[in-house]
């Protein structure tokens, strides 16, 4: 049995708590490793070591910190295949999807190479008689990230990249379900030149999370996961005086107008609804066709596309469309919600509950599932399913379709498919959701814009990556200075390079 570790002070360290969690191969249902779960004492020791290392890193020239990020990008590209295989083995994603996971994290690291520009302060000459005024962006000290299982490469990099390049030390508490890639990221950052202790990867469960929330040295916390846990972390972290950003659940709607290209819309829904087995916070889980004719035309196109989907393990090749869910419990939860949809009166068009794959009968697979005639009061509409389940809610007109998305408690992402520019502009202007797609099903912003949902999908006033990330991981100090006038004698004639 492979026993994993923590990454502390630049090396692998065995856990000492005596507690472990199983890491499964989702395709076979077999335990492939076990990961140590840190105690409060272990977490506190990692924070103390990070705090001791941080001042020197914070005082390092921002351009030199950026060079570490530059080398990290090179190493990520070098080890892309290795990272993707490890990710797929523990999460269940297909290899192309796993590479996409790494790539979208890598793009944020590329953006962090420009940290010197983002960290520049402001200056006012002669704010008063002989007075200059300027501001500085300075690191917080020690920050922490608590990241989910569904993107074990991307989201840790979204958190650690801006934090590290801003001069902070960082404590990463990844998901215990697929911890290998975060540990590999620690190895690569050390190889890239990051000093020991600046990144600590501490595996754990709620005990480690609570230790992060209560440790007085941790100045900021970033979290991605479910809304109930996001609310818990946000509340407890803020109560303890920390800067906190938490991103929770989602129920993303895609409105299909009668004038939309139905084939384009159907293709978009297949990818956005069933890709990664639906285990994406930006997955489209609700299709909202406007009018019965639109709905009928959409369902007619979806069924043959769903029937062609290839579900299997990542080892079956790159033509696999999606793999298993991450755990047996996740599989059973999704099947239970499908059952509730049937009981509450939705039309089950395709049923994935009995999907079995020869040779992988114990894997955590759920086949692609499609519902029609779903209503607001059904659990499959209200809850985030996080599985390969697409619900169709029929709207009589545009205003009713808009209301479905606007009235839902989640506000992460949404999309509209239409050929009409006026409708698209009205939708983008009025919708109360953080990320909008117009003929784009999964509107995840690129690294130089910010990512964040509204309503119960996001807690805190600053988003992930983009300029907001550097605001979150730094604080502003403003200096007002007056100096005696006069010119000192002496001059330096040589050009001295920056140290």
Task: Please write the CATH class name of the largest domain.
Answer: Alpha Beta
Low-confidence stretches: none
Across the major sheet, the strand order is 15-16-17-14-13-19-20
CATH topology of the largest domain: Aldehyde Dehydrogenase, Chain A, domain 1
Reported for the largest beta sheet, the result is:
7 strands, mixed
**Number of distinct beta strands:** 23
Radius of gyration (CA) equals 25 Å
Amino- and carboxy-terminal Cα gap: 48 Å
Total helix count? 16
CATH H level, superfamily name of the largest domain: Aldehyde Dehydrogenase, Chain A, domain 1
Helix content: 25-40%
Shape: globular
Number of domains: 2
Structural class by secondary-structure content = alpha/beta
How much of the residues is beta strand, in percent?
A: 15-25%
CATH architecture of the largest domain: 3-Layer(aba) Sandwich
Q: What is the arithmetic mean of pLDDT? A: 96
Which labels suit this protein?
499 residues; alpha/beta; Aldehyde Dehydrogenase, Chain A, domain 1; Aldehyde Dehydrogenase, Chain A, domain 2; 2 domains; 7-stranded mixed beta sheet; 23 strands
